[in-house]
Design brief:
This protein is an alpha/beta fold and 375 residues long. It is built from 15 helices and 17 strands. The longest helix is centred in the last third of the chain and has 18 residues. It is globular. Bound molecules: NADP nicotinamide-adenine-dinucleotide phosphate.
């Protein structure tokens, strides 16, 4: 094993877990996935020392060996092995999705073992379900913080920043645009396919609701003049509401050309997309994740606008790196650092509630631009 890397499996654990120190240690689960591996590599480049984990012993061992990290393999249906691994770390960064299938066993293991929980979900049902564990998490002294990737750190922090500027806000628009050749990571493509039949939700008068006429399309200026944007299912309709209390929220995206056709098709064929075999077939067509070359040539722009009942309006933009891998890896590791520094309020949290609205500015070189307020 190279550079001190050490791999254990559930079947041959070689250490007494409880005797290991927890402080300063974190575990990346799903480390052989596209994002998990990218985050593990960035962590090592940044001088961090994660334990890497996943259900495939051979892949975890190879990566642990290459990066000189400790590796451990366990499946999400093996609670004893999960507990052994989690007891030895202060926080887990769960990178194995779609989360609708994977979050619960990991979050429950975190509650059993007193381990803080972070994940990269953007799935509305997952945010709702994790938030429902707020009480048990408070009792266990555990932080449950889903959504520490691009979905939802930048938009959540922007929402709280706008609320700070206009405390009377009762309407919030959030939108983002990717400029450059990078496509979506494979897990994000799979998650989108999984979510297609559910359609989009907005928050209206404090309740989640299907979009009405006129909600679907608008134009947003990300800095180069207004462009058309389309309503998308994004976690903010839950998380930004939780963070700000603003009762009307909608999320938009400037759709890249390669997504316009599939999404238009999804609307036409939505009854078909409810069938598991149809979605399984679509998942076979998932494209490889974006290369480092494409990511380096891609920038992401986020726009937020809050308005109150008297028509006062504030707006701001964030500008950051490629969203799906680079910005996500930066915010995820930023969240890990906060927790290892002792910032981990117990219970269900959003990124901005846990770490503040300026947290996004500490990750991946993101910049914020305040636009003049309108009365
Ligand atoms: N928040 C954001 O902005 C953001 C950005 C990017 C990605 N994501 C999310 O992050 C997740 C990972 O994306 P990715 O591109 O890395 O996906 P990926 O390449 O498909 O990797 C998924 C990883 O999850 C593991 N996994 C899946 N189901 C599992 C299960 N039931 N038990 C144990 N392990 C399981 C896979 O293990 P095997 O190899 O053994 O199958 C693999 O290691 C996705 O859910 C994606 O939506 C979020």
């Amino acid at each position: 094993m190279g550079r001190g890397g050490k791999t254990t499996t559930a079947g041959r654990r070689s250490r007494k877990p409880q005797s290991e120190p927890r402080a300063g240690r974190f575990l990346i689960y799903g480390a052989n996935g596209f994002l998990g591996e990218a985050i593990a590599r960035l962590a090592v480049a940044d001088g961090m020392n994660p334990v890497i984990a996943g259900r495939r012993a051979d892949r975890i061992a190879a990566l642990a060996d290459e990066l000189g990290l400790e590796g451990v393999s366990f499946a999400l249906d093996d609670p004893d092995a999960m507990d052994d691994a989690l007891r030895r770390v202060a926080v887990v960064l769960h990178c194995a999705g779609p989360y609708v299938h994977t979050w619960r066993t990991m979050a429950e293991a975190c509650l059993r073992t007193g381990t803080h929980y972070l994940d990269l979900t953007g799935e509305l049902p997952v945010f709702q379900a994790v938030a429902a564990l707020d009480g048990p998490a408070r009792e266990a002294g555990v932080m449950l913080l889903p959504g520490v990737g691009f979905d939802v750190v930048p938009t959540d922090c922007l929402a709280v920043h706008l609320r700070r500027r206009l405390p009377s806000a009762n309407r919030l628009i959030l939108a983002f645009e990717s400029r450059g050749p990078a496509g979506l990571p494979p897990g994000t493509q799979r998650t989108l396919i999984e979510l297609l039949p559910q359609g989009t939700r907005i928050r209206r008068n404090g309740e989640l609701a299907p979009p009405g006429r006129g909600d679907g399309e608008r134009r947003v200026d990300f800095g180069r003049g207004p462009v058309p944007v389309t309503l998308v299912p994004w976690g903010d309709v839950f998380t930004a509401w939780h963070s700000t209390g603003i009762p009307n929220i909608a999320d938009y995206m400037a759709l890249p050309r390669y997504l316009r056709l599939p999404l238009a098709g999804a609307a036409l064929f939505s009854p078909l997309l409810r069938l598991d075999p149809v979605r399984d077939l679509l998942k076979k067509a998932v494209l490889p994740g974006p290369s480092a070359w494409a990511r380096a040539r891609t920038r992401t722009h986020v726009y937020g606008e809050a308005e109150d009942a008297r028509g006062r309006r504030v707006a701001a933009r964030l500008h950051g790196p490629e969203a799906g891998v680079d910005w996500t890896a930066a915010t995820a590791l930023g969240a890990v650092r906060q927790v290892l520094d002792g910032i981990a309020p117990a219970g269900y949290q959003t990124p901005a509630l846990a770490f503040g609205a300026d947290f996004v500015l500490e990750c991946g070189g993101a910049e914020r631009e305040d636009l003049p307020a309108e009365d």
